[in-house]
Design brief:
about 290 residues; alpha/beta
Length: about 290
């Protein structure tokens, strides 16, 4: 099939290349003229044939909103617009309803696979009408590995499922991180080889996973991870997952604490910890370290 790809960053470029290798014709646009294949969104849309299919891989929030607003003025009734970024599912519901008023179909696609997706395939969780998914099916089957994509429900559901996916990812990553720190901090067994442990856990262990595979690779390159700072950013999905857990009265302590651990990683000398030290000193005379 023929489609346009808006956003040629790491994910968008990888998806574009995988689609082309699968025999699809892809026209790519990026706001960076050094990587863009066309000069504008107008040119991209003009090069497509009805029903036009445009897939966006741009950052969530303002960039996605602006791209949709611009494309909505260029697309016509019967065209299909796909948001493959990590948008909030409530925004996706709103966008689907708004575009439907102009006869433009909207699909929200949760995409997982990262920089490895080009080689391994992208896991896709898509939300939208049955007809829109049928139109998009050739691209979905090329992008995903076998059994690696699913139509999970109406508009918004794709990004909802991807949000929860990322919340689970937070918890898994935090658990690995804490476990390896316990190993590294052992005074009884200070010579434990963390890379060796990661490698043996990859084979037959109940905690084996692709994340562990990646962790083993990182430890092979830098056994003490001395080239990194322990500063961990979050891109929003973990927060949204916690918000939805609160909204639905669902206890999600692991995901919530994993999110808070990321916040803590960004504090070199937090006021909360200074307050803790002050209180221990006040009530018990416990020693403190002066700044």
């Amino acid at each position: 099939m023929k489609l346009g790809m808006v956003g040629l960053g790491r994910m968008g470029a990888g998806m574009t290349e995988r689609l082309r290798r699968g025999g699809h014709e892809v026209i790519g646009y990026d706001r960076d003229p050094k990587v863009s294949e066309v000069a504008s969104l107008d040119e991209l849309v003009a090069k497509l044939s009805p029903p036009r299919v445009v897939w966006m891989m741009v950052p969530a929030g303002g960039p996605t909103e602006q791209s949709i607003e611009a494309l909505a003025k260029l697309l016509v009734r019967g065209d299909l617009l796909v948001d493959g970024g990590n948008s909030n599912f409530r925004d996706s519901i709103r966008r689907a309803e708004s575009l439907a008023g102009d006869g433009i179909t909207f699909v929200d696609a949760g995409v997982s696979g990262g920089i490895w997706g080009l080689k391994e395939g992208f896991c896709l969780m898509v939300g939208g009408t049955k007809a829109s998914i049928e139109l998009l099916k050739p691209a979905l089957e090329t992008l995903a590995p076998p059994d690696g994509w699913a139509h999970v429900g109406p508009a918004g559901s794709g990004h909802f499922v991807k949000m929860v996916h990322n919340g689970i990812e937070y918890g898994m990553m935090q658990s690995y991180a804490e476990g390896f720190e316990i190993l590294k901090s052992s005074k009884l067994y200070p010579a434990i080889d963390l890379h060796q442990v990661a490698e043996v856990w990859r084979n037959g262990s109940v905690v084996r996973s692709w994340l562990l595979d990646l962790g083993a690779d990182a430890l092979a390159r830098d056994p003490g991870l001395e080239q990194l700072k322990g500063y961990v950013q979050d891109s929003g999905e973990g927060r949204w997952t916690v918000f939805e857990a609160i909204e639905e009265d669902v206890p999600a302590p692991v995901i919530a604490l994993s999110l808070f651990a990321r916040f803590a990683s960004r504090q070199d000398d937090s006021f909360a910890n200074r307050m803790l030290a002050a209180l221990r000193n006040e009530f018990g005379g416990h020693p403190v370290k002066k700044a």
